[in-house]
Amino acid sequence: MHPHLIEAGCDEAGRGCLAGAVFAAAVILPPNFSHPLLTDSKQMSEKNRDLLRPIIEQNAIAWAVAQLNAPEIDQINILNASIAAMHKAIAALLIQPSFLLIDGNRFKPYPNIAHQCIVKGDSKYASIAAASVLAKTYRDEYMTQLDKEYPFYGWKNNKGYPTAAHRAAIEQHGTTPYHRLSFRLLPNPSLNFGD
After folding, report:
1. Cα–Cα distance, 53 to 44 (Å, whole number)
2. Within a domain: residue 2?
3. What is the per-residue pLDDT across 25-59, written as a single tens digit (0 to 9) for each?
4. pLDDT: which is higher, 191 or 140
5. What are phi and psi of 11, to 5 degrees?
6. Would you tell me the crossing angle of helices 126-149 and 46-59 to the nearest 10 degrees?
7. Percent of the chain whose pLDDT exceeds 90
8. DSSP string, 112-162
């Protein structure tokens, strides 16, 4: 976009989940980087995301992944937590970018770095697509680990998203320390735990 700027693409994963941390990644790619499989991670198969992750990590000039956990999300809300996770990822980059490409339409300025929000940016910019792949694969790995601790909720498959099976398990077994209590965990409000 700006050939003379060091651009970092940023994206998050797990905003709509009922359980688990929200993850964000920031990636600075070489200017001419492209890969035939690289597109918005939501359009990719899990297999292709897993193939791309080491390719991105090896080829990126710099990359970082960060997370905010469920209690932090409950405290500051999911939008603020997503942005805070992106800020954490940007801060962890070994090379400071001079411009940020942010997926979506909401962001709080990061100190001393200009940014642009791009709706559906993960399908328009390789660096945002790369960030979406890292955020998603790291989050999926984390939810698969949590699944071993709490196998009732099917997190290995649903990754914490509000599937019927996940909601049925909450109804039957209650919540875990990983559930976002500020979210509407069950469709019937009288059954919610935060009330």
Report:
1. 12
2. no
3. 999 999 889 899 997 667 889 999 999 999 999 99
4. 140
5. -150, 165
6. 120
7. 86
8. TBEEEEETTGGGT-HHHHHHHHHHHHHHHHHHHHHHHH-GGG-HHHHTT--
Q: Does residue 192 have a pLDDT over 70?
A: no
Quote the domain boundaries for residue 173: 151-191
Residue with tokens 């945002």: 128
Q: Which of these, 86, 84, 113, 118, lies nearest to 101 by C-alpha position?
A: 118
- Give the whole-angstrom CA distance, residue 113 versus residue 25: 16
On whether residue 1 sits in a domain, the answer given is no
Give 114-156 pLDDT, tens digit per residue: 999 999 999 999 999 999 999 999 999 999 999 999 999 999 9
First-last CA distance in the chain = 47
Separation between Cα atoms, residue 34 and residue 40, nearest integer Å: 13
Q: Are residues 46 and 132 in the same domain?
A: yes
Q: Exposure string (b/e) for 4-20, b if CB count within 10 Å is 16 or more?
A: eebbbbbbbbbeebbbb
Query: For residue 60, what are its two tokens?
Result: 């990126």
The pLDDT of residue 42 is 75
Residue at 140 is within a domain: yes
Q: What percent of the chain has pLDDT above 70?
A: 93
| Averaged pLDDT score across all residues of the chain | 93
Enter the pTM of the model. Answer: 0.93
User: The tokens of 181 are what?
Assistant: 């209590």
Clarify whether residues 87 and 70 are in a common domain. yes
